[in-house]
Amino acid sequence: MLSSYEVNSGGRLYHGGVVLKEHHLVGREGVWVLFRVREMAAIRISPLLASAIARLPPNGLIADRLMQELRGCHLVADADAEAGRPSQGGAAAAIALPVRAILFLAQTCTMRCIYCYGDGGEYGESGLMTAATARAAVDWLMAHCGDARQVSIGFFGGEPLLNMAVLKQVVDYAKKRAAERTMAIAFTVNTNGSLLDDAIAEYLARESIHVRISFDGPRDVQNRQRPFANGQGSYEQVVARLPLLRRQMPLRAVRATVCGNSDPFAVRQGLEDVGFTACTLDAASPMVGHEAGRTERDAGPPAQVPEQLALRMLAYRRDEVARYFTAVRSRRLDLESPCVLTGLLSALATGRRNHSACGAGRGLRAVSAAGEVYPCHRFVGHREFQMGRLEDDPAAVPNDCHRVFVDTIPACSSCPVRYLCGGGCLYHNWAVTGDLRQVDPVRCRERRVICEELIHGWAMLSAAERAYFREQATRLYPETQGA
Length: 483
Ligand code: SF4
Ligand code: SF4
Hints:
The protein is of the alpha/beta class. The protein has 2 domains: 79 residues, no CATH class; 372 residues, Alpha-Beta Barrel (TIM Barrel), CATH 3.20.20. It has 17 helices and 18 strands. One iron/sulfur cluster binds next to α15.
């Protein structure tokens, strides 16, 4: 192991054998940020220093003055410590216990969205979840969540409101089971909004069930992308039902899917026009069909987001992050509404490394209407990912998703933003490339832009603005506390 040494040459002091911590430079309009990759720390530096760091030859001598600046940026590593760091967090490698279960109450739907990854919401096997299966799913979650103080249950489909009777039964049952263990329990429901009425809206509000609406924005886009099963557009019916919910609860957040020629900026405007202020937009993942429980891949090259749409999404992501930081600076963050940027920025705020992008197959599981357990909602119906049935013991079964960490994905293992990105959506990787560990280059580029914009923006915040973010995030993300 090389250790550092000093050399005097021409009356000047130089340092050799210096090991620098893994780092990355992010520049925007002449303003430079130094990101220490493993510490998840971002600081603003001068353009001169950025240029000097970028030009440092590997294993070369470093002038003493520059060395002092590198030390000031905490960039100089203890050689042994840097070389000896594990490539994968030990805790992260353990099998994580499930704390969130997504129940497929209805594998059937009122709509036929053109990008639906669930084959019209049926996932290859149409049906409604029975009350007995729903109760078994709750029992299974309670049996496997260890010492968790809180669990959550999501209602999904298809359109889960097609099975209101079972939804109500499972809410009652899960609350009773949680009370027996004095643990907290939270509920969410993902709905296309088409079946909402006063009674359902009142019930969801009374039971504090967080509603996640899927809606694609402007009238023409919603009607084209999210038609009813009979082919008719759904815009008018859904928009007419939003006030029913808004009479009962704040309804600011919406999720929209962007595909084809859609313009994400126009989609966001369409969502804001009907009262949504927290809009999550994502480009559609390619569809991988289900056929009698088997995966049917389309012949031909892997489906990717078309380049024009990908470029529009890149511009949108930059704008989205800029708007987010504007909200931080003006103390107008809406942290009650789910936003992936909040989770990512919390990681930067705490220095917490993300070894994966989500909890698929770890803290998260999905249960199909028939009682089969999958790593997450998107894998439902693809039998090669089935982890077992409720009556088996699928919590103990490691699965492919469980084994994939960002350091184990070849394209990600040397990426400087890997502990922020986490490697992206495993389902999307698989849908595009056929391999969980092979990233979609288009989505990867988008995630890298998001991460770099966040790193740069975080370094630009004042201490007071960072404190404001931490204070706000602590309310929803307790792990932010004390960072
Ligand atoms: S998906 Fe792309 S941006 Fe994310 S960690 Fe992997 S290489 Fe980096
Ligand atoms: S694999 Fe993709 S769809 Fe599934 S939970 Fe993770 S990010 Fe979400």
